[in-house]
Structure formats: C-alpha cells, structure tokens
Design brief:
Blueprint (H helix, E strand, L loop, with lengths): L8 H27 L3 H4 L1
C-alpha cells in the first residue's frame, strides 16, 4: 500500500480515532439488523 505524502502519523491517528468507532458502530448495527443478533453479542 502506498502512503499518502500528506498523511503524517499524527493526522492519520486522529483520523483513525474519529473514523474507527463510527465504522465499528455501523458494522455492529448492520449485523444486528441483518442477522437479528443482540447488540451486546455483536460488539
């Protein structure tokens, strides 16, 4: 994978911290709605 020159480690980390929980919550929500598993089970 090629690294973007503008993406220094602190910016990437800040971005990841903002995006990852959101993506994870979305994944959990999708699993729950699709498969009908309980939310505590999915997380």
């Amino acid at each position: 994978m090629t690294e973007l020159p503008s993406c220094d480690i602190t910016r990437c980390e800040a971005l990841a911290r903002r995006l990852l929980p959101q993506m994870r919550a979305e994944m959990v929500y999708r699993l729950v709605s699709e498969r009908g598993i309980s939310q505590s089970e999915a997380s």
